[in-house]
Amino acid sequence: MTDEATPAAAPRTAEVAAFLAARMCHDFISPASAIVSGLDLLEDPSAQDMREDAMGLIASSARKLADLLAFTRVAFGASASAETFDARDLEKLAQGVFAHMRAELDWSLGVEAVHKPAARALLNLAQMAGAALPMGGLAEVRAVRHDDAVQIAVEAKGARARIRPEVLSGLAGGPQGEGLHGHWVQAYYVHLFVTDAGGRVGAEVGDEKVVFAASIPA
User: Is the dihedral of CA 80, 84, 90, 92 positive or negative?
Assistant: First the structure.
């Protein structure tokens, strides 16, 4: 597990908020733009033979955007006033995101409900595991309550499973470095809310495998 100590040069709150906003906009812009492209085709008199394709593009992109918005509301947002989340609801959110990934999700929790920090950790680490499998594979999400803490293990297994250096740095509370801030800020955000809750988080890289782990006081 990576070292969770936050270095002296940790980014300021405003910078983190700006990076998170940019990250979310990046996720939303692709399906939103696809919806607009589909509408443009519907309005083009010379493209009426592509009407069925346009409707399919609009429908699939709208589903992706809705899935991402629902996921983001809990993974990154306050999610109204909820402080406890049903494990089945969290699985539904995660499966919605994985429906648009190459990797598959195996979700099996030994708890029926978790508090907000654990819920956010489960969703974010699951999404990061999917991102670690660019060629496809399996992301296994597990969680149990042990010694008054929620123990989370997320394992990404597949060909060319990898994790970017900026993700490892973010999970350890380190700066972005020269990597892409969209990948770094999600990991750094996880580090922030897990350590604020008195827990720890990190990742290890193996042979075609990446394992994320977190321990958060229950």
Answer: negative
